[in-house]
Amino acid sequence: MEKSFIMIKPDGVQRGLVGDIISRFETKGFKLVGLKQMSVSRDLAEAHYAVHKERPFFKGLVDYIISAPVVAMVWEGEGVIASARKLIGATNPLESEPGTIRGDYGITIGRNIIHGSDAPETAQSEIKLWFGDDLCDWESVMQPWLYE
Fold first, then answer.
1. Alpha-carbon dihedral 113, 115, 116, 119, rounded to 10 degrees
2. Whole-number pLDDT of residue 119
3. pLDDT of residue 148 exceeding 90
4. C-alpha dihedral (22, 27, 31, 37), degrees to nearest 10
5. Are 18 and 8 in contact (CB under 8 A)?
């Protein structure tokens, strides 16, 4: 089973969207194997966004992600990375389809509510960075109803 790292950003937490976002992933049939609400250290934020280190928006992005708590999650399921990206919507909320998280709740690219891994390699490194080996492996009674 594939795993994806999903983070509800400070604006999503502050706006009270955590429950709805979790519900969307559960309703889709994915299994939650990691969950924590936390204040993000500058070191963790800089490590997470290291790929953008040379970009002009890097400092603002780091300052934003450490400004308030986030909810870090790991979801598991077949095709979870691609499916999560569809549930989340385009990076720019104004380009996101209605029915997606960003399409329904987002307004600006700088406050786009949620982050999701974009590839298996990225997911693996993000999960390791945010959770280490601290995931909850469990069997859902729904599994036979979701997968052949």
1. 140
2. 97
3. no
4. 10
5. yes
CA neighbours closer than 13 Å in the CB half-sphere of residue 26: 9
3-state class of 30 per DSSP?
A: coil
Type and span of the H or E element at 95: none
Nearest of 47, 43, 40 to residue 8 by alpha carbon: 40
Name the residue with tokens 């052949």. Answer: 148
For residue 72, which of 127, 109, 23, 26 has the smallest C-alpha distance? 127
Q: Residue holding tokens 């795993």?
A: 3
pLDDT tens for 70-126 read 999 999 999 999 999 999 999 999 999 999 999 999 999 999 999 999 999 999 999
Catalytic residue among 115, 116, 117, 130: 115
Distance between CA atoms of residues 147 and 101, nearest Å:
25
Task: Quote the pTM value.
Answer: 0.95
pLDDT single digits (tens) 84-94: 999 999 999 99
Res 30 pLDDT > 90: yes
In the block, tokens 């691609």 appear at 82
Take residue 3 and report the two structure tokens written for it: 């795993």
Q: Which two tokens stand for residue 9?
A: 């950003």
Tell me, yes or no, if 115 is annotated catalytic: yes
